[in-house]
Structures are given as structure tokens and as C-alpha cells.
Amino acid sequence: MKPIFVQLQCAPGKTYEVADAIYKAEIVSELYSTSGEYDLLMKVYLEEGQDIGKFVNEKITAIPGIVRSLTTMTFTAF
């Protein structure tokens, strides 16, 4: 399993609805509310070889109320 982090910018007033939809979809390991340019930060574990772009586009950004996303992949460095 490989972790990725996805930050989500939500439409005004839609953050709680987006968070609820993410939990109902059962796709997230951890979900946090954040301050700044993005409203939510999620940690997702994907199977090795799973297409990250396809997963983000089909499972995450397709959720109504999401305006923008930023995906961060992790690498084993230590």
C-alpha cells in the first residue's frame, strides 16, 4: 500500500458536505480540516500500481463541492 495526500479546496459553505461524502465513500484513511488555501487534507492508501490520477479524478474530485485539488505522492527516502 502506498500513501498519497490530497488537499481539497471546497466551494464556500460546502466543506462539511464534501467531508461527509468522502467518509460515506469509504476511500480515506485520515481526513483533516485545515486552514489556508485548502479546506481539507486527506490521506489515502492505494495499492501498488494503482493509477493515482484516475483514482483522484474518479473517486475524489468527482464529489460535488470540490473546486480544486492538490495531490502529493510520497517516496521512501530513509
Keywords, separated by commas or semicolons:
single chain, 78 residues, alpha+beta, four-stranded antiparallel β-sheet, 2 helices, 4 strands
Task: Describe the protein.
This protein has helices at residues 15-25, 52-60; strands at 2-10, 30-33, 40-46, 66-73. It is built from two helices and four strands. It is of the alpha+beta class. The chain is globular.
Question: How is the secondary structure organized here?
Answer:
Layout: E1 2-10, H1 15-25, E2 30-33, E3 40-46, H2 52-60, E4 66-73
Antiparallel strand pairs: 1-3, 1-4, 2-3
What is the tally of beta strands?
A: 4
**What is the gyration radius calculated from CA atoms?**
12 Å
Q: Give the helix proportion (percent range).
A: 25-40%
- Strand portion: 35-45%
Low-confidence stretches: none
Q: What value does the average pLDDT take? A: 95
Widest sheet: strand order? 2-3-1-4
Number of distinct helices: 2
Distance N to C terminus: 17 Å
Order of helices and strands, N to C? EHEEHE
Tell me, what's the shape? globular
Q: Report the major sheet.
A: 4 strands, antiparallel
Backbone structural class? alpha+beta
